[in-house]
């Protein structure tokens, strides 16, 4: 048994490709960008088998064939709301109190 | 030595001509001037026809809401007699959740009519969702090219969510690391696929936003008996400002002040791998707002239909912390939980309304959908992970990329006026720079530059003389 990530034919996967080497990039980039390659990730159905990091051709949802190195199998989304923001938790309470005080001072809601 | 990048860019004109289905050369008048109005109407659709296209597309006729609680709150901190009424056009009610649906609906209608098999757009914003959604309805294939990750493969949550929603609508999403070569890859994909370029900056897209201005004028007249005194627009590439202002004008609301608003991201470089994830706004900010206003023709079309300086009366900036505060306040006070970027104009409107008389009416012309990733909490939690400070205090101490200061009270919100006359000068300098060396502007060019900067020939001539001296 191995926990190595492998793609089987027909699975929904993501491949990684290097689009441009640093030397081929646009001029006038800030140095921290210019020294890095331009990378790309695309998802599609595996057209063969591969282990993570190995070359694989995929067919994207529009039917294009893209070859890159396998970066993920069945890639998901892990974005969250996260914890409440302490600097914001009081905002609703305070503004409602301010609104109530203002309306009391002018004799109610217009 | 010619690189792969140079090779594609050299063929850019030819590829784009095919992909746009439109030859822009017929609008050119001189090395500086072109016939803007002819370009805007060359698609042949009347405003009524665009309204009909959008009605079929599930786009437009969004609710216009008066924000009574927010207005009273602003009045509670205004001088006597001040505190304008605030309204919002809830554009999140469009099919894919943003005003961008207006743009996409017309572009995709054109692509379908012209018989393209698919569409491509380069966008990390709500426009991707709009294009993907409309492409799905029109049975067209769709590729969205996004700048998503820094070189460590860390994605801005807002952009990751936008990628997710594009895939949810059946689009192929091509995700790239930071850099302007996004455009290079889009051109390469257009060349390979023969798809339609659903550019954000085409006349199709910008015409689609005119219906928003039209609706605001008509609905405000019905609700208040008059056109709004001010419309505040979240401003990035300039299409939102341009289309809305044109629609207001076409409805007859020629006295309405157009106030554009952006989040201040000064000091952060838009092509920097280091700065990429240190900004909490991926649109509606000065990093697009200023360069695109002062040189619109940097876009992916030969002539940009979004020309905001033609319409802007004032350009306000607000801080990230102020927008997050107002985003929270909008949910709690008005029952509108919407995305932060779309609340940029709302934040500026709070500041603006405080200083206007009570009988003034301020319309914020958009909202956008929210959700995990595209939520102010996600943005702030991500900022903290990226080492950006988040604290309560006076927003004056906000430093883009370093510290996000959340106001402690609504009276601390103060939008700053940008120097619009200086932006006009900068535009004229860029127009000259992009003309062949030694070219002397004719009187027609001067007329064009005056119109393109909402200025007058005398002011343009003075600027040209100043530039010649420098």
Write a structural description:
The complex is a heterodimer of chains A (110) and B (470). With 110 residues, chain A is of the alpha+beta class. Chain A has a domain of 68 residues: SH3 type barrels. In chain A, 17% of the residues lie in helices and 33% in strands. In chain A, the strands form 2 sheets. Chain A has a 4-stranded antiparallel β-barrel. The longest helix of chain A has 15 residues. Chain B has 470 residues and is of the alpha/beta class. Chain B folds into 3 domains: 124 residues, 3-Layer(aba) Sandwich (Rossmann fold); 249 residues, Rossmann fold (3-Layer(aba) Sandwich); 50 residues. Helix content of chain B is 44%, strand content 13%. In chain B, the strands form 3 sheets. Chain B has a 7-stranded mixed β-sheet with strand order 1-2-10-7-8-9-13, with helices on both faces. In chain B, strands 5-4-3-6 form a 4-stranded parallel β-sheet, with helices on both faces. In chain B, strands 11-12 form a two-stranded parallel ribbon. In chain B, α7 links the parallel β3 and β4. β3 of chain A pairs antiparallel with β5 of chain B.
